[in-house]
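> example.struct
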């Protein structure tokens, strides 16, 4: 037997969304024994396989599914259906290779659990010598990209809430208030719920949000299917010019890379996450089917009038439709606290040691308030939901959810484990190229649409 040694002990906190467990300091492992990271995980309150599946589904079934009809508007019925399945499979594959690579890195480095950014860091640390100096940069990049992704998605949430209340209140009262006024009003509850710093206090809000979303889905499906559907006037393919918006919207809707590692890291049986059927395949298969159905039939029902959220297409003359719009606005408002918790947790852990402990409370309040006000400012600058969703999906979700996992897997397997004819490298280059296309083209078209909207507003004003 080889000489025994003490495994390295990474420090994590219970609220760490990158890594959620802590290795006991007394854990002894044999140098000669094959290391199984799953056997060395110590989790205070692990999630069951079913619970993990529910968490993954809950993280994916949000505002994104409501944007699917407008995605189909930018693609056409046939291309939208095929494209949704393809993008869903690509997103699923990227999550799969990220988690699989994380498992292999854990095994090689004898660390029981690693989060997204730690996986990227360790991959470069143990990768090709020329790339090892990039380890610190890779960790920082993923952390800051996660923060940017969640903060930008929070901006979409604010615009979504304000737009929903704008349509309902203006219709019911006869007011002609701008959506920007509703963004300012929305900031009042947002500033309050964004100050919650403990996950346990967000649980009631999440429970209500889930209930409201389920009811809203039911009402939306009722309006989609209550009358006969007309298919003949809907194109099978829209246009090449609108495809980037389709891809970026679907990526925004489906991509949940930020929550994958926390869910997997907290499982009592993490070996059930991958594989067939597995938690990942079951969750993403369900998501792909639901998104395709809502997108397809939502577009058939509302056609080119489809908006950034299908609930905005519901007839405001009906009390049931008004109820759906109010409920989904409240659901997204209640979800904002959890959405905001994730990037703030990452940011606070990076800076808390630089702030005196007696000033932590006031610093947290000031920092959170400042960031939320900045997010509201972004919403005020771009209050159009449809191109905003496309822009966020193109810039943040495509780079973090598609490009980074491909880079991580390639670096880890380089140069001798890339398969026959280096098929893994070829596959990752193709997926990486697609992510860059989605980023560049989606961002360009979204910004172009935003500029045109402002130009049209200026011309109408004149």
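> example.seq
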């Amino acid at each position: 037997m080889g000489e025994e040694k003490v495994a390295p002990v990474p420090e994590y906190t219970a609220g760490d969304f990158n890594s959620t467990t802590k290795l006991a300091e007394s854990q002894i492992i044999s140098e000669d024994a094959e290391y199984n990271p799953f056997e060395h995980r110590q989790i205070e309150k692990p999630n069951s396989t079913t619970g993990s599946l529910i968490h993954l589904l809950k993280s994916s079934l949000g505002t994104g599914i409501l944007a699917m009809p407008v995605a189909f508007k930018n693609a056409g019925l046939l291309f939208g259906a095929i494209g949704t399945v393809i993008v869903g499979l690509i997103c699923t594959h990227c999550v799969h290779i990220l988690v699989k690579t994380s498992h292999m890195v854990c095994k090689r480095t004898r660390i029981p659990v690693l989060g997204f950014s730690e996986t990227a860091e360790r991959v470069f640390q143990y990768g090709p010598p020329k790339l090892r100096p990039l380890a610190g940069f890779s960790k920082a990049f993923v952390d800051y990209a996660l923060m940017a992704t969640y903060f930008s998605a929070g901006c979409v949430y604010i615009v979504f809430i304000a737009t929903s209340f704008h349509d309902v209140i203006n219709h019911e009262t006869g007011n002609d208030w701008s959506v920007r006024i509703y963004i300012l009003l929305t900031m009042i509850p947002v500033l309050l719920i964004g100050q919650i710093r403990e996950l346990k206090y967000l649980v009631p809000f999440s429970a209500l949000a889930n209930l409201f979303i389920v009811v809203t889905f039911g009402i939306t499906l009722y309006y989609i299917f209550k009358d006969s559907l007309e298919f003949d006037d809907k194109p099978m393919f829209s246009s090449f010019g609108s495809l980037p918006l389709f891809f970026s919207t679907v990526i925004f809707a489906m991509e949940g890379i930020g929550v994958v590692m926390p869910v997997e890291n907290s499982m009592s049986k993490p070996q059930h996450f991958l594989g067939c059927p597995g938690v990942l395949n079951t969750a993403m298969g369900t998501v792909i089917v639901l998104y395709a159905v809502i997108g397809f039939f939502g577009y058939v029902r509302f056609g080119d009038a489809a908006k950034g959220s299908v609930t905005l297409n519901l007839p405001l003359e009906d009390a049931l439709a008004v109820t759906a719009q109010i409920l989904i606005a409240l659901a997204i408002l209640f979800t904002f606290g959890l959405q905001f918790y994730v990037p703030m947790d990452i940011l606070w852990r990076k800076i808390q040691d630089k702030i005196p402990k007696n000033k932590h409370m006031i610093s947290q309040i000031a920092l959170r308030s400042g960031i939320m006000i900045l997010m509201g400012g972004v919403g005020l600058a771009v209050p159009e939901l449809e191109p905003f969703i496309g822009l966020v999906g193109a810039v943040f979700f495509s780079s973090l959810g598609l490009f980074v996992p491909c880079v991580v897997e390639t670096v880890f397997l380089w140069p001798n484990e890339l398969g026959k004819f280096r098929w893994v490298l070829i596959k990752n280059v193709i997926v990486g190229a697609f992510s860059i296309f989605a980023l560049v083209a989606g961002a360009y078209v979204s910004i172009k649409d935003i500029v045109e909207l402002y130009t049209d507003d200026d011309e109408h004003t004149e």
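> remarks
Residues 135-173 form the longest helix (39 residues).
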